[in-house]
Amino acid sequence: MAKQPTAEKRQRRERGSINPDDIIAGAFELAEQVGIDNLSMPLLGKHLGVGVTSIYWYFRRKDDLLNAMTDRALRQYAFATPYVESRDWRETLSNHARTMRATFLGNPILCDLILIRSALSPRAAELGVLEVEKAIASLVEAGLSPEDAFDTYSAVSVHVRGSVVLQRLHQKAEDGTALEDTMVVDADRTPLLAQVSAAGHQIIAADDTNFDYTLNCILDNAQRRIRAS
Question: Using alpha carbons only, what angle is made at residue 108 by residues 107 and 109, rounded to the nearest 5 degrees?
Fold first, then answer.
């Protein structure tokens, strides 16, 4: 049988000594140990050294707690992500995309909360919209139409998220086997695939090479549109 997730037991707190910030901070600590999927109110109570009713006093459901965690994660993430600047839009948008990807890949909890978990609180959704508005405004100032600016930023965002989620789902897979790991390249039947595979290229992989190739294609298209206008 699979071992059930456990939490370190702390010295029990006095009644009324816990607050929402402590609960959210403790939830992040516990999620680092057991993951978002296995995070539960009873486990969190044990981790914090409080009765589970003390947590339910502030967060009636796990989803309420996850919403609060997502709000906090988005605020920290938005602060850490570089802005897109109109004067050097290509470089700053590229840095923006790479920083987003590195941030999510380096923090599985952030990835699970924001990318894999589809539900966002109204506050988190509003924060995301404001960040997108800033990026689109910079691209319009750089010379793109509002429609092209939106499509460009949207394509970059989808590319980043898709790349990260593919890698995260690969990490979460029980057997650790991804589609690209099961594909057999026969040099006689597929000589071109064998040639590029031997050079280090991976098929259907969310690696740096594939990520940069697609990102540059999106940026090249935006640059052509700016020149044309």
Answer: 90
What's the CATH code of the domain at 49?
Answer: 1.10.10
- Of all residues in the chain, the percent with pLDDT exceeding 70 is 82
Rounded Cα distance between 134 and 144, Å, is: 14
Pair (110, 144) in one structural domain: yes
When divided into structural domains, the chain yields a total of 2
Least confident residue range of 25-39, 96-110, 185-199:
185-199
Parent domain of 102: 84-173+195-228
- The segment with the largest mean pLDDT, out of 122-131, 178-187, 214-223, is 214-223
In a domain, 12, yes or no: no
